[in-house]
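Its record is retained below.
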Amino acid sequence: MAKLSPSILTADFTNLGEMLQVLERHPASGWLHLDVMDGAFVPNISFGPPVIRSLAGKTKLRFDVHLMVEEPGRFMADYVTENTEYLVVHQEACLHLDRTLQLIQSLGVKCGVALNPATPLSALEYVLDKVDQVLVMGVNPGFGGQSFLPVALAKMKALSEWRQARGLDFKIATDGGVNAGNLQEIAAAGADIIVVGSAITNAEDPSAVLEQFGSILEGGA
């Protein structure tokens, strides 16, 4: 069954500790998604290593760190904490993707690659045997609260077929525009990790939304 990776990108940082407690109490939450934006690769700036380090050890959730930055290899080690499970870089941001993936693995964490909506799956054909996660973007990266682009469903279905045909075991993830109306369809397309941001963190009752999402995922299992 797919698991949620709630993103804190649009969360109220003055109440972040309380939000983390809500997220980690629900069994549908598998990871904490941390969106790092540099204002260059994407048109927005979020947070960096100091915030991520401040969260390490304060929650039971594992970190799914999404690096929306140019030349991510420059500061890779700064994002590795006791909670970090995945470091995910963008194919479009890596001049030497294979080398970057090797660097992530050398740091003792799992490596992932994200693809923007207009980037074809073929861009990953020769590294699929080296990745632990492929993140299919459901929106153009850079801002929370966007609508999900249906092209991501087709990409996830094709990626799932590739994975099965090649006998690989990487996780398929998606990020952007996820809500109660499309969650079941996204899970059915092959997603193992589903990033959810504003639908949870901006809700009046995040716990109730988590319950709803968990029930949807269980019903589609």
In short: The two ends are 5 Å apart (CA to CA).
